[in-house]
Amino acid sequence: MQNFQDLITKIINRLYPRKSQESARIILKQHYLQSPKRYRSLTLEQLAKTPSLERPLTRERARQVLNNFRKRDLPREIELLERSQSLDDSIMKEKRQDLADLTETVTKIVNEVDTFERPIFAWRVQNRLRTSGFISEEVFFPLITELADSLNISCNFYVDSFNGKRLVLDSDVKVSTVTTEIISYASKVATHLGGTCSFEALLGPSIYKTKPQFFTFLPQELTKKYLIDLFSMDSSFMQLQSETYYAFRSKDERVSTILASIFKYYDVPIPQEELTSVIIKSLKHRFLIKSKSEQRDRKIAMLESSGEAIDEFCRRISLLDESTDDKRKPGATLLNSMSCHTASEAVKSQAIMLSRIREANEPLTSKQFARIAHEHVDEQYKSSCFSYPILYLSSGTRKNKLYRPLAFDYGNAQPTVVNVSAEALSARKELESLDFNQDDNITTVTTRRREQYQLRNYLVTNSDLIEIGEDSKACKCLICNRYFPVNLLIAAHVKRRADCTPDEKRDFENIAMLQCGGCDQLFEKGYIVIDDEGTVTRNERYEVSEDLQKKLARVSGNKTDYFVKGNSNRLNYLQHHRKSFA
Ligand SMILES: [Zn+2]
Fold it and tell me: For residue 117, how far is its CA from the centre of ligand 1 (angstroms)?
């Protein structure tokens, strides 16, 4: 197989030999020789502004150059080549040997790409063509296959782009039907179910209105792979429970409302199992009041099995936070939204009953409960005081159900606060005694270690700790939002330490954040960045291996508590980090 780059260069030079055609030559070469390593392909604007041009062209002119080549000049050449072949005109044939060679090369690549199941993102095809040695590292196959039409090569697929990424599609498939339509369906399904949905449910029979036709195209396994690739382009997409569930971060409204209602009336951490079951029961409620149908039952079954995913979702977007003994307390995001949350009348009526139970200091039976409700709750809200989310109904037969508060607190138990201010002070003192004006080249490893150690201690003592054993405490990694023993955490400089001024190094409150070892690596190397809203996002600049992709999926979409609205130092450090990996 002849080298594509050499052939295309030869043909461009041959078709546009004149001085006046120089800009056409430059634009075409710039386009066809672009490297697959760029993570987005060149736009018409960028082509029109190619630096080697004598002066920039308009976008329209750049388009014209490409179109003339593909739709006018190449087809004409092909016609001439075919004529020379049928006339067996050896001089004419000789003159167009480059074109015959190009046709052969393009045909081979087209045939190979044709064997891939579609739709598929071009980078996957590219990787597989490259690793099998089919194309060399410098060649980007979509640029080659886009010539098929011009060269009269029949092709069952075409390449189009979506948000700057190329997709390989069957000829009769419209881009929007395998991209935007699917994303919008999947996000509606997730919203409908309270924020999370399993891939299995998404791929199975329709659970929400009409399902896009796409889902019948491919076997489930391939469809799921494609969906993950597609959704990953949306910065609010989250994979949960490894690859079992998905969510879109911004679709948390219903869970947020439930949690805000709960924590308005509880100032103690609540056992995770109890909390999750209450969330699910509240979410189920709106399906249960509908008449029985297969679809309704599927939704209910789906919710009943999604507890772990909901809990993970809430922790990763910081609606919930872990507390000692596998309990949950409100996370930073929830605390924020609670400040402007007003409880509905239905919840208020439950709160009235809650205070009665607390007064009684023991659970109430259905009978007692009904009597009190009759006396104290407004008639029109009476029925809602029997439901979730702020009361807990212990199971039993309908008659002897017991109503009790969540978390068995019955009163005013306070969360245990670990008092660490003395340790924080001493860590701070140690830090202040270090010399940050010293040239970085002179600073010894020991000094650095001491700084790192004290900085970590300082951050730890300023954070929420949970007890994990007799003498052992855990603290949160602010990227994956999971808790780790303190000695596994690292004070990671948000703005690279080497780039910091002495004053920035001394900004102990803000310059670093606690991260676990795995997250520290991803952050330090720029595989993940944090946007201006505090969301952990995968850096699209890097193409990554399948395994790393899975790792990234466990953190992307997370909300980090490091981000605090209005803290401009932190925002600056985050932006600096992002820019250095853009
Ligand atoms: Zn982590």
Answer: 36
Cα 380 to Cα 69, 285, 369, distances in angstroms: 74, 18, 16
Please report the pLDDT score of residue 398 as a whole number: 62
Domains of the chain, by residue range, sit at: 4-115+137-150, 174-340, 343-414, 421-580
Q: Are 193 and 240 in contact (CB under 8 A)?
A: no
DSSP β-ladder status, 165-170 and 157-162? antiparallel
Average per-residue pLDDT in the chain?
89
Q: What is the CA(411)–ligand 1 centre distance, in A? A: 36
With pLDDT > 70 as the criterion, what percentage of the chain qualifies? 96
CA 197: distance to chain centroid? Answer: 15
- Looking at per-residue pLDDT, the higher value among 218 and 262 belongs to 262
CA of 398 from ligand 1 middle (Å) equals: 45
Alpha-carbon distance of 407 to 270, in angstroms, equals 5
Look up residue 341 and give its two tokens: 């949350």
Compute the distance from residue 99 Cα to the ligand 1 centre, in Å.
55
- pTM, 2 dp: 0.86
- pLDDT value at residue 419: 53
Ligand 1 geometric centre to CA of 115 (Å): 40
- Ligand 1 centroid – CA 325 distance (Å): 20
Report residue 63 as tokens.
Answer: 């388009």
Res 424 pLDDT > 80:
no
How many angstroms does the Cα of residue 522 sit away from the middle of ligand 1? Answer: 9
**What's the confidence (pLDDT) of residue 381?**
85
- The confidence score (pLDDT) of residue 134 equals 85
Tokens of 94: 């000789």
Q: What is the Å distance from ligand 1's center to 519 Cα? A: 4
- The Å distance, Cα 476 to ligand 1 centre, comes to 8
CA of 443 to the centre of ligand 1 (A): 28
**What confidence score (pLDDT) does residue 39 get?**
64
pLDDT band at 425 (very low <50, low <70, confident <90, very high): confident
| Digit-coded pLDDT (tens) for 26-74 | 999 999 998 887 667 788 999 999 999 999 999 999 999 999 999 999 9
Q: Say how far residue 472 (Cα) sits from the centre of its chain.
A: 33
Q: How far away, in angstroms, is 58 Cα from ligand 1 center? A: 47
Return the H-helix or E-strand segment holding 238: strand 237-240
SS3 content of the chain, % helix, strand, coil (to 5): 50, 15, 35
CA of 73 to the centre of ligand 1 (A): 56
How many angstroms does the Cα of residue 551 sit away from the middle of ligand 1? 11
**To which residue do tokens 């044709």 refer?**
114
CA distance 176 to 389: 40
Kindly give the distance from the C-alpha atom of residue 494 to the centroid of ligand 1, in angstroms, as a whole number: 14
CA 174 to chain centre: 25
CB atoms closer than 10 angstroms to residue 340:
7
Higher-confidence residue of 417 and 165: namely 165
Q: Give the per-residue pLDDT at 415.
A: 46
> How much is the pLDDT for 442?
67
Give the Cβ contact number of residue 322 at 10 Å. Answer: 21
Alpha helices in 478-581 (DSSP H): 502-505, 517-524, 546-553, 568-579
